[in-house]
Amino acid sequence: MTDKSRNLMKVGGIMTLSIIIMAALITLFTRLTEGSRAAKLKKGVQAVVGEEWQAGREVKIQSPLAASASAFALSYNGKEGEESGKTEEIFAVVMRVETLFGPMPCVYVCSALQEDSPAEFVGVLSLHGTVSELLKNRANERGTHSIDYWARRVPLMVTAALEEEERSGR
Amino acid sequence: MEDRYYLPFVIMSLAFVPAPARFACAFVLVLELCLLVAAGTALKHLEVWSFLADYKTLLILTAVVAIVTLYSVIIGVWSPETQLQLGFMFYLQAASSFVISTIFGEDEAEKEVETDRWRSFKKTASFSVVILVLFAFREIAGFGTITYPTFGGVKEKVILKSAVRGMTLFATIPGALLCTALMLGGIALVERWQDIFCRAEGIND
Lengths: 170, 205
Description:
The complex is a heterodimer of chains A (170) and B (205).
Chain A: H1 3-49, E1 53-60, E2 70-76, E3 90-99, E4 102-111, E5 120-124, H2 130-140, H3 146-167
Antiparallel strand pairs in A: 1-2, 2-3, 3-4, 4-5
Chain B: H1 6-16, H2 23-44, H3 56-78, H4 80-86, H5 89-94, H6 97-104, H7 113-142, E1 145-150, E2 153-158, H8 173-204
Antiparallel strand pairs in B: 1-2
Helix pairs in contact in B: 1-8, 2-3, 2-6, 2-7, 3-4
């Protein structure tokens, strides 16, 4: 074996090892901190949906179109589903939506049973004042607006996530 | 004028245009930029490169990508909504010409370590200050609020109860382009004046 190929093997070894260590560290850190991330997002969603609704368990959304989206089951005055007097399960979904003001963490509320009817846009995390109102008003005008587009996609995403959850037996 | 700052400024500021007009987001991105430049410059001057000289650039770039991914995860724990908002913009910084040119910009073999570190620090610090001021202005004028980082996450303070309608433009993406163009025009103008003054002093001497 020549010096050059020995050197190349050494570098290859170091590269592979460093990539494996980095990937392992990142995966471990992500797994360890999942709970804390979800708890903070839930708190933010709770502030947007109002006091009468309580954000509960997290439903994992595994859509490649919205990889960072999270959904939380909502209970009405502490009661979920039929107990609350509502006949269906309600979910709040927080996701990144491209708007005229750049990407915004938008919150939608939808029912799991009515996947044909669009979700309701309820607000943006940590955004108050004129722009928040402006976004809400624009979202109410149905059309080609990106907030409106995602309002139509969100119920389908939640339904798919629930089906996936059922399949995996959770 | 030894360094022409405004060309890397033009290219780099474009990486900030798609970011939301929130001071906390700019702070997170600027911190990432400083971290990348500091880590890249430090790695470049490590003593272990003698037998890895041919692969130095590749290894530094791998380290930069790892730092960005880890940074994005840490921000996700500290403030998930900021991570949600910024998304791919974390990776845009790593691939930006500002980071690449600051780390690998000059022939390192002929440069002294201290001079190189000082050059990187000066360039990154001045760029960071300009971006932070720009985003603070855009947020206050456009949203009427100011977001700031705390140990527990990002906090928001409402400054203007009812923001002026016309000023909302500054919070939009077209407004970001407008602000960036104005800022770069200003920097180019100042550089030109400095050039003229330097030449005038030379003639007088």
